[in-house]
Amino acid sequence: TGVQTCALPISDPTVERQSGFLAPSFGGSSNLGTTLTLPYFWAIRPDRDILFDPLFTTDESVVGQATYKQAFNDGFTRTTLSATKEPSTDRFRGHIDSETRFDIDPTWLAGADLNVATDDTYLSRYGISTADTLTSRLFVEGFRGRSYGNAEALYFQGLADGDDQDTIPVVAPKLDYNFVGEPNDLGARLTMDANIQALTREDGPDSRRVSLISGVHLPFTSPLGDVYDFRATLQTDLYDVEDVDRKSTRLNSSHTDISR
């Protein structure tokens, strides 16, 4: 039942970047009937452009689609929007997929990803995406030496059969810090991995965790050429959990495994 398309490739290396129509594509599906896309590229300025990519169908309404891109001296942004109004239900359906990155300074980078749809089946019905989970993210991260720091918030939209949005957690905040020290006179390095995160649900358990792993790493090469690697670590975890249903272990595992 998916959308099948066939494009007519056109390539001309002598043509510079400019506005104009691109190669159309056509296809069809049992849901949409015969389909046609007629993309138009608008080169607004050297640093920005828009691609209009409407989808025309014989059995449903037109799906308006557009992608805007812009480059900056210290980052970029890209946003894709699509929308339609189904004639059979008179219902508005659409989605947004946006990505933005900015360099704050040589150490820190900030970013935002927004990826949401009006309902579970819109993207697959119109052949836009086959994803079963959409992830939105707001973050800032930094690298300095061998160390790394990150602060972020995550939102998941479940599109798979059986997903209950009320049981899928919002992860905010999620803080990570990874430290690797300089070697001392013996060649040993101190290490530390710290993590703080909170999971909040509309329906189901809420949890908060603080985790700290500290350690020492000592590589050693013997006079005979044998190489040894000595490590010692100590992990401490603190959990706080609320609204736990002790009669059930159902936690929607597909959206709760948030790694460090």
Q: Describe it for me?
A:
The chain is mainly beta. Helix content is 2%, strand content 59%. The protein is built from one helix and 17 strands. It has one helix at 122-125; strands at 4-7, 20-21, 25-29, 33-37, 40-45, 48-52, 55-57, 64-72, 75-86, 91-103, 108-117, 133-144, 147-158, 170-180, 189-200, 206-221, 227-242. The strands form two sheets. A 13-stranded antiparallel β-sheet has the order 2-5-6-8-9-10-11-12-13-14-15-16-17, with no helix packed on it. Strands 1-3-4-7 form a four-stranded antiparallel β-sheet, with no helix packed on it. A hairpin with a 5-residue loop joins strand 16 and strand 17 (227-242). The protein is extended and about 75 Å long. Mean pLDDT is 90; it is low at 249-256.
Short key terms for the protein model shown above:
260 residues; mainly beta; 13-stranded antiparallel sheet; 4-stranded antiparallel sheet; 2% helix
Briefly summarize what is shown:
The chain has one helix and 17 strands. It has 260 residues and is mostly beta strands.
Compile the SSE list and pairings.
Elements: E1 4-7, E2 20-21, E3 25-29, E4 33-37, E5 40-45, E6 48-52, E7 55-57, E8 64-72, E9 75-86, E10 91-103, E11 108-117, H1 122-125, E12 133-144, E13 147-158, E14 170-180, E15 189-200, E16 206-221, E17 227-242
Antiparallel strand pairs: 1-3, 2-5, 3-4, 4-7, 5-6, 6-8, 8-9, 9-10, 10-11, 11-12, 12-13, 13-14, 14-15, 15-16, 16-17
